[in-house]
Design goal:
The complex is a heterodimer.
Chain A lengths: L2 H6 L3 H26 L7 H20 L3 H7 L27 H30 L9 H35 L8 H20 L26 H28 L12 H33 L12 H18 L2 H15 L6 H15 L17 H10 L1 H15 L8 H22 L3 H7 L3 H31 L5 H27 L14 H31 L31 E2 L14 E2 L15
Chain B lengths: L1 H25 L9 H35 L17 H29 L7 E8 L2 E6 L8 E3 L2 E4 L3 E8 L4 E5 L4 E5 L5 E6 L5 E7 L11 E7 L1 H17 L1
Parallel strand pairs in B: 1-5, 4-10
Antiparallel strand pairs in B: 1-2, 2-3, 5-8, 6-7, 6-9, 9-10
Helix pairs in contact in B: 1-2, 2-3
Classes of the chains: A mainly alpha, B alpha+beta.
Chain lengths: ~625, ~240
């Protein structure tokens, strides 16, 4: 192909051109507008950066071909009917294209997210290296603030949230017996927004004045005050958030409308319930974080004075809007993991999930209660005092549905036949660690305790017990569990177990002592600390390097097994859910015959029970062994 | 067989709980007690520990016991567990019991909150102003004269201090770990906390607990708690200095 041809066809070359055109557009807008207003200087770096950050990604997406179908349709030209020729991935190059196959997108999502896990983890290693001793060793204080800010933002917005969307993208349509997601083109667009958001956040390190350094919370007016690197967060979050919302809508419509015949809501696997609940949270809450960052953007770019008290601004308003998203976001980062754990525990304990309906109801209860607790992040913010007590009670009460889930999982284990392989080890590791995060969470509902421990390392310990001991353990469990289905290969069990034990021990040694130094009064987000904390910090840093090493074991296992692991059977775990009833990896269109669901998803131990059968609906008569 | 297993696990769990509670209470979690508030908050924390340890131990015992007793033995590769789908009675118990426990803990926390924020008649006001990256303190003068300002924080012992906190630029947070009290310094509004100092001469660190920029980690100061008489003479000296300038 000639260069000109290449730049006309959708793909990465055209995307690069689109990117440049986006930047050119920024100059074309900023220069005339500033000269019309008579601003001096006419060429302002920050103004060009802001417009570029907004325009260049759209140029990139346009060039990549993410909008092609819609543009053809909108302009009245003949659309290219989907002939499914793009389905499936024949070589690694197919993963760098706009692909509408949910299985390809699921792998794109998952691999991209894990790339950002490695980046975020590497930043954590730098943080711990700096904190190993009091005083400053490797980075400046501002550089340090940048490290933990990018660490948190990358791992929250580019790893935990999207990796769950990625795993669900792959398995959820299979689980409900659907050929694909409801909106495949939107699905592709959701994916491609992610690398944009992640690249933007990482590029902030190159910005004059350094990367954004105000934490992932980006409290105003600090965030309206600092150098231009902040904007890479402000705008990056918009793209990550748009990706979340689009995917969540896609999941909702898929779950509501595309279930196989016979799959009533009460026959859905709990992973599907979990993603249904999560998607509700995402659709309702995510616009609030978008708003909070637009406030910052407008304050900075156009002088809106949202957070300038002398001009009628209100500093606390930022925190209310921010946490109205960011507390539900904690559940966005946890509920899909609950779903994964339910799948794994039931299969690996060879027993039905204990109290299936309560498991589903407790998810919905968390969705509702999740919107009533945000101000517990603001107990020492100086907000109106009366709101604290109601928020303390709701925060404590949200532990009840979570407790129901934990106790039901424990009852699922009881008298089962436990297969203690890698996915199960991570699931059990999750159970034992998450309960600690839950307990410190209840402590963090109690206002007098919060007054002492908020903004200390106790919070850092709590959030890592929830997001690492909680979410990340479920993610590892899920990746090992579905690895055979996604890649058609088996992973190395010995390396998997090594990975688990290194992670489990390293994790506890790293984050356990943080509870103590937090209670002792070490504030969080500090580049330097009082000498009294030196001993524990050195210990924590050393332990964290074990966690770092364990990740290398995981990466090696995944890469080597994907390339040369033994071929996986269709159903190596003898699971009942539908994704295991097709080959590994699944056929291009998922199901050669439409499955009919005739019973619950977890009927282990029921003689002759099946969840779905591959017959024409008319032929299905008995609900063999099903509970309904 | 089943009852036997349950009893076995319960006994192990009870022993582990008792040990866990003893350990949790033996650990010295907190910095020194520097205020009346610290006493109340430490007790609340201990109560939370006592309530938490059995729940933690319960979960760990069931997991470990299941791993020990119910793990797949060779030859059981194709065996399934019993098809137990649930138990309404158990589900009611583990919904209602945690709910009651949590409401009880909230009620206790509420009473502690009322106590640590209660105003006392002889309280003294200290105005705190935060800026990147320093603390400034101002004391209203006794005779209503010019307030005494200082970059050092001196506090009388055995007295309630009401800190009124403002910020000149971004959000900071006034935190003295030994007092167990903190509050944000927010531009545009005045926030406050009350601290009842103990009857003891001692220096405590003042730290900024809210990320405020590149100097955040070093935004530290010292609070000197001194006997009332000594404090009065310090005030008089400061007032004289203020008038002479």
């Amino acid at each position: 192909m000639t260069v000109a041809r290449r730049l006309q066809a959708p793909g990465l070359p055209r995307a690069g051109l689109g990117l440049l055109m986006g930047v050119a557009l920024a100059y074309a807008i900023v220069l005339p507008v500033r000269s019309l207003y008579g601003f001096d200087p006419v060429l302002d770096g920050e103004a060009v950066t802001i417009v570029s950050l907004l325009a260049a990604p759209f140029g990139f997406l346009f060039g990549l071909g993410a909008f092609d179908y819609w543009f053809y349709w909108a302009s009245g030209r003949p659309t290219r009917a989907e002939d499914h020729s793009g389905h499936g991935a024949k070589s690694w190059r197919d993963y760098f294209r706009v692909n509408t196959d949910h299985k390809v997108i699921g792998i794109q999502y998952t691999v991209t997210s894990f790339f950002f896990l490695l980046v975020g983890g590497a930043l954590a290693m730098l943080i711990r290296a700096e904190l190993a001793q009091p005083g400053m060793q490797f980075v400046s204080t501002d550089g340090y603030n940048g490290l933990f800010s990018v660490h948190a933002s990358i791992l929250i917005f580019l790893f935990i949230i999207p990796v769950f969307a990625g795993l669900a993208n792959f398995v959820l349509p299979l689980m409900i017996g659907a050929p694909d997601m409801a909106f495949p083109r939107l699905n592709a667009l959701s994916y491609w927004l992610l690398p944009i958001a992640g690249t933007m956040m990482l590029l902030s390190f190159l910005a004059p004045g350094g990367s954004f350094a105000t934490g992932w919370t980006a409290y105003a007016p600090l965030s309206t005050d600092v150098p231009v690197g902040q904007l890479f967060f402000t705008v990056g979050v918009q793209f990550a958030g748009a990706s979340s919302v689009a995917t969540a809508l896609n999941f909702l419509v898929t779950i509501i409308t595309m279930r196989a015949p016979g799959m009533s809501f009460w026959r859905m696997p709990l992973l599907v319930w979990a993603n249904f609940s999560t998607s509700l949270l995402v659709v309702i809450a995510t616009p609030f974080v978008a708003a909070s960052q637009f406030f910052v953007l407008l304050d900075r770019a156009l002088g809106f004075n949202f957070f300038v008290p002398d001009r009628g601004g209100d500093v606390l308003m930022y925190q209310h809007v921010f946490w109205f998203y960011s507390h539900p976001a904690v559940y966005i980062m946890m509920l899909p993991g609950f779903g994964i754990i339910s799948e794994i525990l039931s299969v690996k304990a060879r027993k039905p999930i204990f109290g299936y309906r309560m498991m589903a109801f407790s998810l919905l209860a968390i969705v509702v209660l999740g919107f009533t607790v945000w101000a517990h992040h603001m107990f020492v913010s100086g907000m109106q005092e009366w709101i604290r007590v109601p928020m303390m009670i709701t925060t404590a009460i949200i532990a009840v549905p979570t407790g129901i889930k934990i106790f039901s999982w424990l009852a699922t284990l009881w008298r089962g036949v436990l297969h203690l392989d890698t996915p199960m080890l991570f699931a059990l590791g999750f159970l034992t660690m998450f309960v600690l995060g839950g307990i410190s969470g209840v402590m963090l509902a109690m206002i007098p305790v919060v007054i002492h421990v908020s903004d200390t390392y106790f919070i850092v310990a709590h959030i890592h017990y929830v997001l690492f001991g909680g979410s990340l353990f479920t993610i590892f469990a899920g990746v090992y569990y579905w690895f055979p289905k996604m890649t058609g290969r088996m992973y190395d069990e010995r390396l998997g177990k090594l990975h688990f034990w290194m992670t489990f021990i390293g994790f506890n040694a790293t984050f356990g002592p943080m509870h103590l130094i937090g209670l002792k009064g070490m504030p969080r987000r500090v580049a330097d600390y009082a000498d009294q904390f030196a001993g524990w910090n050195l210990f924590i840093s050393l332990a964290s390097f074990v966690v770092g090493l364990s990740t290398l074991v995981f990466v090696y296992n995944m890469v080597a097994s994907w390339r040369g692991g033994p071929r996986a059977e269709a159903n190596p775990w003898r699971a009942l859910t539908l994704e295991w009833q097709v080959s590994s990896p699944p056929p291009t269109f998922n199901f050669d015959e439409v499955p009919t669901v005739v019973g619950g998803p977890y009927e282990y131990g029921v003689p002759g029970a099946v969840h779905g059968v591959f017959k024409k609906p008319a032929e299905v008569t008995a609900t063999a062994g099903g509970q309904e | 067989m089943r009852r036997h297993q349950l009893a076995q696990m319960l006994i192990l769990g009870l022993i582990a709980s008792a040990g866990g509670i003893a350990l949790a209470l033996a650990i010295d979690w907190f910095p020194k007690v520097g205020s009346h508030q610290a006493d109340r908050i430490d007790t609340l924390f201990d109560v939370l520990l006592v309530a938490s340890v059995p729940i933690f131990v319960l979960v760990q015992s069931i997991v470990l016991f299941s791993v020990w007793k119910f793990r797949m033995r060779p030859g059981e590769e194709l065996k399934d567990g019993p098809p137990i789908h649930g138990s309404t009675r158990l589900e009611v118990v583990w919904t209602a019991f945690p709910a009651l426990l949590l409401v009880g803990l909230c009620a206790y926390a509420y009473s502690v909150l009322g106590d640590i924020e209660k105003a006392k008649p002889n309280s003294m006001v200290v105005n705190v102003t935060a800026e990147q990256f320093a603390w400034h303190f101002a004391y209203p003068a006794a005779g209503g004269g010019k307030p005494v300002s200082s970059d050092q924080l001196y506090l009388p012992a055995n007295r309630q201090i009401e800190f009124k906190i403002r910020s000149k630029d971004v959000i900071h947070d006034f935190f003295v770990p030994e007092f167990r009290m903190k509050i944000d310094a927010v531009p545009g509004i005045t926030t406050k906390i009350r601290v009842d100092t103990r009857n003891q001469r001692r220096d405590y660190p003042v730290v900024c607990a809210e990320l405020c920029g590149l100097g955040h980690a070093t935004m530290r100061q010292t609070a000197h708690v001194i006997p009332q008489a000594e404090f009065d003479s310090w005030m008089q000296r400061k007032e004289k200095e203020a008038q002479s300038t």
